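Predict the 3D structure for this chain.
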Amino acid sequence: MEKVRARVIVEGRVQGVFFRYHTQEMAFKLGITGWVKNRRDSNVEAVFEGDKERVDQIIQWCHRGPPEARVTKVQLAWEDYTGEFEDFSINY
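Done. Predicted structure below.
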């Protein structure tokens, strides 16, 4: 399986709706490593590393998010895979 790294910025009503928590749960379920954090501009940013198929799945999930979220846009940038993460964390 091809290993990839993706950085996403999720816009909309994504803070205060447990977006980071649900992203971490989904990452654990899919075996993806990386991190997620709230940004000062009210968006959420995440870096995902893992098998391409699974990273694609979590990116698609980011377009919906948890039930309380209202995602209006997802910016996606593919980066070089580094393998630097041991797990998936919520950054503050």
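DSSP finds two helices and five strands in the chain.
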